Amino acid sequence: MTQRTRPLRLAIVDDYAVVVAGVAGLLAEEHIDVVETGASQSVLSDVDVVLYDTFAQVQGRGIDLEDFVRDSGAKVVIYSWNLHLAMVDQAIAAGARGYLSKVLTGPEIIAALERVMAGEIVVVTGDDESSAGGAGDWPGREVGMSSREAEVVALITQGLTNQEIAKRAYLSINTVKTYIRSAYRKIGVTSRSQAVIWGLNNGFEPETLRSIDPALVVRPPD
Hints:
It contains eight helices and seven strands, in the order E-H-E-E-H-E-H-E-H-E-H-H-H-H-E. The protein has helices at 17-26, 65-71, 85-93, 106-117, 147-157, 162-169, 173-187, 192-201, and strands at residues 8-13, 32-38, 49-53, 75-80, 98-101, 122-124, 210-212. The longest helix is centred in the C-terminal third of the chain and has 15 residues, at 173-187.
């Protein structure tokens, strides 16, 4: 594989600012330019890769994966804790050029993205929920929530039922209920309405902010 002579240009997409910040922080020391970050809306910048973080994403709300693939000349790569085979297959079938686990280190992510840029479809999974990125990886981590518990609470905050959460996250209904019980203990609530109020007050409401680095808007000449 030919070594790139200039930084990879990247857009990071997710509805949660703390998630975007965690990903950007993880990649801060790598050979990469984070040109644009923000919520699930069309990417405006001229980038090489759209890194699409699936945390608490709901199909049919806002911009979906198929929209990014259609609307951007960049290669779209999924970045997720959810490594269920059906979800991976669905993403690749929809046009994603890669599917990467969030347990990967910064250098591992960059190596995978370079393979994507070279024309490969790259799937790199893992089974450890520990995070390389630190406390900003997902909302609720500061109160001890796992990534899966946080995602379930985020989906509850968006109004999804247990059955809808199970379908979206490829979990059994009993597993969803287990995550709900453990998350409720950690945040000190006993009902769904209390959980929604807690979520709205603690960073679990999707945002619509976009940030574009003005110093990186123009792609350097070859």
